[in-house]
């Protein structure tokens, strides 16, 4: 009689912990996949404010590429972008400022906040499909992903960003 109870207890014990183990494994597996997806920049297809296709591979750059996710209604984003546009920083880094809003909203944002100023190393682009925001799991802005010249992730910053992070 004792043996069937032990076997039943083992089934109950393992049955209770199996879903927890699977859940933990799935979460760590998802995080690993997420990290792999963003650790290598690859090629991203975005749209410029002129509604033209923009690919990261089109950049000829020997230094860092910074992907800055922003929203035109975000106060911190406005301040960061204003400071970037108004400072005379080293042109060796390429900043790609990405929004998932519509192009017209970003055009208005640029006119009102950036005085339609053009800076060679800063590109304002739109993620029309939202795939890039999904790929990077962007739920809040601002966020900055910093890649080296080999397009390998070297830094990720969330929230208020010291402007020097763009250029150090």
Could you walk me through the main structural features you see in this protein, from its secondary elements to its overall organization?
There is one protein chain. This protein is an alpha/beta fold and 168 residues long. It has two domains: 1-39; 42-166, Glutaredoxin, CATH 3.40.30. The chain contains four helices and seven strands; from the N terminus they run H-E-E-E-H-E-H-E-H-E-E. Strands 2-1-5-4-3-6-7 form a seven-stranded mixed sheet, covered by helices on one side. Strand 3, helix 2 and strand 4 (94-99) form a beta-alpha-beta unit. The radius of gyration is 22 Å and the shape is elongated.
CATH class of the largest domain: Alpha Beta
State the helicity in percent bands: 25-40%
The largest sheet is: 7 strands, mixed
Poorly predicted runs of 5 or more residues? none
Per DSSP, the total helix count is 4
Please count the beta strands (DSSP E, at least 2 residues each).
7
Rg computed from alpha carbons, rounded to a whole number of angstroms? 22 Å
In round numbers, the mean pLDDT is 78
Q: So, the CATH homologous superfamily of the largest domain?
A: Glutaredoxin
- Envelope shape: elongated
Order of helices and strands: HEEEHEHEHEE
